[in-house]
Amino acid sequence: MASVGVALELVEGNIRAFHSGGVGWVADRPTIKLANKAVLCRHTSVFEREESGWRIVQHHFSIGVANEVVFGNEARKLE
Questions:
Q1: pTM for this one?
Q2: How many domains does the chain have?
Q3: What is the CATH number of the domain that holds 48?
Q4: What integer pLDDT is reported at residue 72 of this predicted model?
């Protein structure tokens, strides 16, 4: 696959990290910057402790979008 030469920057928000025994998780509200746009998103990851260190077992990024953006005026019927 060829590179398109576009840089994406991920800027951390307020990272919160926790652990219980051999399981750890983080949550953050980072900002994704691409070209001249900046979008707040959600991030979570779950880790499992192994002999060699922590391994990511689940990773999630999402961008919140209003119901009206996805479903149009039909979304108002859900209220």
A1: 0.70
A2: 1
A3: 3.10.450.50
A4: 80
